[in-house]
What we know:
alpha/beta; 5-stranded parallel β-sheet; nucleotide-binding
Amino acid sequence: MLVLGIAGGTGSGKTTVVNQIIKHFPSDEVCVISQDSYYRATDNLSYEERTKINFDHPRAIDFELLVQHLKELKQGKIIEQPVYSFVTHNRTIDTIQTHPRKVVIVEGILIFNNEELRNLFDIKIFVHADTDERLIRRIRRDITERGRDIDEVLNRYQDTLKPMHQQFIEPTKNFADIIIPNDKFNTVAVDIVRTVINERL
Ligand SMILES: Nc1ncnc2c1ncn2[C@@H]1O[C@H](COP(=O)(O)OP(=O)(O)O)[C@@H](O)[C@H]1O
Ligand SMILES: Nc1ccn([C@@H]2O[C@H](COP(=O)(O)O)[C@@H](O)[C@H]2O)c(=O)n1
């Protein structure tokens, strides 16, 4: 099994890069785990209280469960990956059965921040896009796909997202084996990653 970690700031294009990588592999050879699925369950909080959570701080993530699940996949076990709702800001009651595959990809903003998780990756990739580009993408995506309005996105950006990115995400670029510049769609970099995967398998 080859485990890839793909990190990068919000809107850098992690999900897009993952989708470009996996479309060239048969579906029974690759699986994806998203850090977003592992936001902590907060059933004890009201919706109003959940909107105030700092979702860009490492403590918002259930790294214990994420590490446990990745270890179980490595042991050949099937896991129940949680399903998270960006609309309710909470885990849903659903899970996705995720099977161990030859290639396992873990993607998320903070995955290189946790040492135990970081040490489970065979290849570490950081997707980079400029700050203004990421903010533009985030505004578009969160309004069309995540049920937000412009004030929500900009307030969150100023209050937590930008400072947390500088403190917890950008420094982890130093852990990367490969940095993908993704201000424009970068098919060359994706081809290189696919070649590296094929060579290692
Ligand atoms: N290279 C790119 N050029 C233009 N838009 C992009 C690029 N990569 C991703 N996007 C768009 O930006 C938004 C955020 O991308 P996404 O892959 O979801 O980022 P992330 O997973 O890092 O938050 C999506 O709407 C996606 O289509
Ligand atoms: N309820 C939530 C939970 C997280 N976020 C934001 O998601 C970003 C990480 O996801 P990406 O797909 O963009 O990597 C992160 O920056 C959180 O602020 C949210 O808005 N609401």
